[in-house]
Design a protein that fits this description.
The chain is α/β, with parallel strands linked by helices. The protein folds into two domains: 229 residues, Phosphoenolpyruvate-binding domains (TIM Barrel), CATH 3.20.20; 29 residues, no CATH class. 42% of the residues lie in helices and 13% in strands.
């Protein structure tokens, strides 16, 4: 008798909306390559973000600014090939949408056509409304990103918590409502006070995903390399390390080096 493998149900923007409605938390992680994306997808993650954080963890840049659209498409293609279940969201990199809505649409269409991803993410509120409107008008789903927006790091001058002052907190709440009205299917809130994030999550009907925004939101996102301890020197309060792979992998490589030097590898069973 043949056993039919259960079909994997795709996560869509509609599924995420239903999860918020039903009070089910949304899990989201970054991935930038086929091997990692396959593991994360098979584990059952809801959303995979092909983040411009690839600029930091994959390419070694200090900020997210240097990564190009072509490089983001390359990472997105690699991830999409691995994914059977998760919703794949891709960051539009710095300089591909700010101030020029036609360029924003071209950038988003290139990502969707060339990678096969399911949605794009943009940083900012009312100041990028034309870009969001134009992308949405082409039928491309858009996720917003407010609070600490790393592409604006030189404007902020620091990676400290955002929206602690009343004026900035008020603008963030207004921007979140504005993004919802424009038609964004969800919003990432990064590094803002937990109480403010909870208020936003209760005010808007679309899913709110937090990173350093407390537990009162609809889901959480982390950079997979941070969660797994592949990065060594990054210790923000919001990060929980589930593994220490930097030390584990370094130890394995050290053992391999010793085995090669001593002639222990390969042994008789490891050759033809």
């Amino acid at each position: 008798m043949s056993v039919h493998k259960k079909e994997v149900k795709r996560v869509t923007t509609h599924v995420l909306q239903a999860m918020k409605h039903n009070g089910e938390k949304i899990s989201m992680l970054t991935a930038y390559d086929y091997s990692m994306a396959r593991i994360i997808d098979e584990a059952g993650i809801d959303v995979i973000l092909v983040g411009d954080s690839a600029s930091n963890v994959m390419a070694g840049h200090e900020t997210t600014l240097p990564i190009t659209l072509d490089q983001m498409i390359y990472h997105a293609q690699s991830v999409v090939r691995a994914v059977k279940r998760s919703l794949v969201v891709v960051d539009l990199p710095f300089g591909t949408y700010q101030g020029d809505s036609k360029m924003a649409l071209k950038s988003a269409i290139r990502i969707m056509k060339e990678s096969g991803a399911h949605a794009v993410k943009l940083e900012g509120g009312t100041e990028i409304k034309d870009a969001i409107k134009r992308i949405l008008s082409a039928g491309v789903p858009v996720m917003g990103h407010l609070g600490l927006t790393p592409q604006s790091i030189y404007k902020f001058g620091t990676y400290t918590v955002r929206a602690k002052e009343e004026m900035e907190a008020k603008k963030l709440q207004e921007d979140a409502s504005f993004l919802e009205k424009l038609g964004c299917f969800g919003i990432v809130l990064e590094k803002i006070p937990a109480e403010l994030a909870r208020k936003v999550s209760e005010t808007v009907t679309v899913p709110i995903i937090g990173i350093g925004a407390g537990g009162g939101v609809d889901g959480q996102v982390l950079v997979s390399h941070d969660l797994m301890g592949l990065t060594k020197d990054f210790h923000p309060r919001f990060l929980r390390r589930y593994l220490e792979l930097f030390d584990t992998i370094k130890g394995a490589v050290g053992q391999y080096i010793d085995d090669v030097k001593s002639g222990d590898f390969p042994n008789e069973k490891e050759q033809y």
